[in-house]
Protein: NAD(P)/FAD-dependent oxidoreductase
Organism: Bradyrhizobium guangdongense
Amino acid sequence: MRLVIIGAGFAGMYAALSAARLRDIKGVSPDELEIALVAPEPTLVVRPRLYEPKPETMTAPLLDVLNAVDVVYVQGSAETVDTKSRMVQVATAKGTRKTLSYDRLVVATGSRLFRPNIPGLAEYGFSVDSLEDAVALDKHLHGLADRPAASGRDTVVVAGGGFTGIEAATEMPPRLRAILGKGAKPRVIIVERNPAIAPDMGEGPRPVIEEALRKVGVETRVGVGVASLDKSGVTLSNGDQIETETVIWAAGIRAAPLTQQIPAERDNFGRLLVDPCLRVPKVSGVFATGDAARAACDDDGNYALMSCQHATRMGAFAGNNAAAELLGVPTKPYHQKAYVTCLDLGEAGALFTRGWERTVEMVGEVAKKTKQEINGVWIYPPKPERAAALASADPEQVTKL
C-alpha cells in the first residue's frame, strides 16, 4: 500500500508525520505501508516569517526528520493527478518524469498569492509570498542604497491592509533605515480597498493596530486600491499618484493550481470542499488539507483559515485519516475550536488575540515575545529523532493553544 502526500509545507509535513505515527502505533512496517512525500525540495519554507530581513534564512531542513520516521521523500513537482487511475505524475529537476501510484492521496499543495491583471503589477510589483519573492524583494531593498536619494527611493507602498500587509509594512521602516543609513526617513504607505485597515480583524483589535501604525510612522490610505504601477510609482483607483520604487503586493491568496485537477467542488479561494475527516467527497481515496481545503473547525460555522496555525493541525488529521483508512482503523473528525492571532507590529511590538471574536489578550512588548516564540520555535519542524517526531504529530495535540 502507498500513501502519497503532495507538498512539504506545514500541512504536508504534519500529514507525513501523523501518518507515520499511526503506522508505528499499529505496528505496521514501512514495507507494508509506504508513505511518500512529493516536493521540489526537502525543505520547509517558514512562510510566516518571509516579511522579516534575511528571508533566505527562513527555511528548515526536512530530510532528516522524514528519514527518522521512514517517510520516503520524492524530489520533484507534482504536475498531474489522475484520480480515476490513482496516479500522480512528477516532474523532476533533471527534466524527467516519474509516475507514482497511490492507494490514498493527501493534497497539501498550499496557496499562492493572488495577482490580478493590474497594469504593471507583474513587472514592478514585489511580494513576500514565496521564498524566491521575499529574496527578490530583499535584494531590491539593498539595491536602493545605490540609487539617487529621491522621494520615490525612500517610499514603500504596501497594497493590502490585512495580516501580511501590516506585518510587511511595520517591519519596513527599520529595514530601510538599516539599508539607507540612520539619517534616512523612509515613508511607508498601506493601501487598502476596504474602508478600514485590518478588515478581517474586527473592531476590538483595530484601535491597537491603528495606534501601532501611527507609532512606527506607517501611513494608511483606505477605501482605495492600486489601479496601475510603473517604474516611478503607483496610481490609485481615485487617480492619486504616489512616487515609489517599491510596491509590495499583499492582497489575498488562492489555493495552488493543482487543486483544479481534482474533480470536486471548490470555494471562491480555490480550496477543495472536504468532509469532517478531510476527505474530498465523491473522489475516492483523496484527502485535502491546509490551504488546499475548506474545512469546518467547529459546529459554530467557523472554517479553517489559510494560515500555518490551521494547516499544521489539519495536516495531522489528514495524514492520520488517510493512513487509518488503509490500516482499517477509525478516522478522526478534524476540529480546532481554539483560535488565536499574533500580529507583528514592528517596533510597536505585537498584538495577541484569542477566539474568533478576537479578544485582545496581549499588546506591545509582551505580545512581541510571544510572537518571537511562535516564529522562532513553535512553527519549526520537530527534531529529527523518531520518538519526538512521531509524538509531535498527534492530531489531537497539534497547535492546541
